[in-house]
Design a protein that fits this description.
By secondary structure, this protein is of the alpha/beta class. The protein is built from eleven helices and ten strands. It binds adenosine-5'-triphosphate (ATP) and magnesium ion (MG).
């Protein structure tokens, strides 16, 4: 069940999951569910295990306990490529663009039949169409992030996992990426958005989960957390970032068209 009640069918169900790297436990007895079409911010201080949780969903860590169900199937023993085929789209924190392939070739190797084809990806990111014949190593950080997201989308996922897509990007690029996330959410695609830019993530998702030391310590509505400075400060230590992001808002808001 999601925070919105029974009406939303379940897409992901993680229960009592303990996972990490060899003997090092990072994810500690964690349980978490996502409904079809839910857009969830996954927040937390550095090193609490956000990337490890996404990597665990993709079968890239050592699981010592617990269960992972996706789209009604137990995927605990499925290999990474099988999870990908089953509908888990993953954009890792490192982006992992193929440097020696062009923009279009990067997408072609990941494409699978469905609503998201290369033309649709170009519509979401017109900049990529302009760069279609450029090689991966000729792209800016923002373009690489667009390509990483586009490449995951042309695989036609049911759940998109985005690990810090805004990291290291200029405000203009951040706006483009955030606008894309907003469009994906509106299209009904379920997604998990890991971000350090908490306020920006909360504006494009409906639900937020906060992790601390491998566990979930908060699960609720994004709009409520946005107004809850005390919890933001306590769980994310965001007093300074909050002030600086608020100061940046006047320049960002008109471009973003985030207000509904
Ligand atoms: N490949 C790895 N091998 C061993 N330990 C790792 C590996 N990757 C991460 N860790 C450890 O796991 C813990 C959680 O790291 P993780 O990268 O999941 O955190 P995070 O919440 O994504 O942090 P950040 O916000 O900095 O990206 C940290 O203690 C980290 O040092
Ligand atoms: Mg991380």
């Amino acid at each position: 069940m999601s925070i919105w009640g029974d009406a939303m069918a379940e897409l992901l169900d993680i229960h009592n999951l303990t996972a990490g790297y060899r003997d090092a436990v990072v994810i500690d007895d964690l349980s978490f569910r996502i409904g079809q079409g839910e857009a969830v911010s996954l927040l937390g201080r550095n090193g609490v295990g956000k990337s490890t949780l996404l990597a665990t969903m993709m079968g890239l860590t050592t699981v010592s306990k617990g269960c992972l169900e996706f789209d009604g199937k137990n995927i605990g023993n499925a290999a990474n490529y099988q999870r990908n085929r089953m509908g888990l789209g993953y954009v890792p924190q490192e982006r992992e663009i193929f440097a020696s392939l062009t923009v279009e070739q990067n997408m072609r190797v990941a494409a699978r039949p469905g609503e998201w084809n290369i033309a649709a990806a170009y519509k979401l990111f017109p900049r990529l169409e302009e760069r279609r014949n450029n090689y991966g190593n000729q792209l800016s950080g923002g373009e690489q992030q667009m390509l990483a997201m586009a490449r995951a989308l042309v695989g036609n996922p049911k759940l998109l996992l985005l690990d810090e897509p805004l990291e290291g990007l200029s405000p203009v690029m951040m706006d483009i990426l955030l606008d894309a996330v907003k469009q994906l959410r509106q299209s009904g695609l379920a997604l998990i958005l890991v971000e350090q830019h908490a306020h920006l993530a909360l504006e494009v998702t409906e639900r937020v989960v906060i992790m601390d030391r491998g566990r979930i310590v908060h699960d609720g509505r994004s709009d409520l957390l946005l107004k809850d400075d005390a919890t933001m400060h306590q769980l994310l230590g965001l007093a300074h970032e909050q002030a600086s992001e608020k100061a940046a808002e006047p320049a960002r808001k008109p471009d973003l068209k985030l207000a509904s």
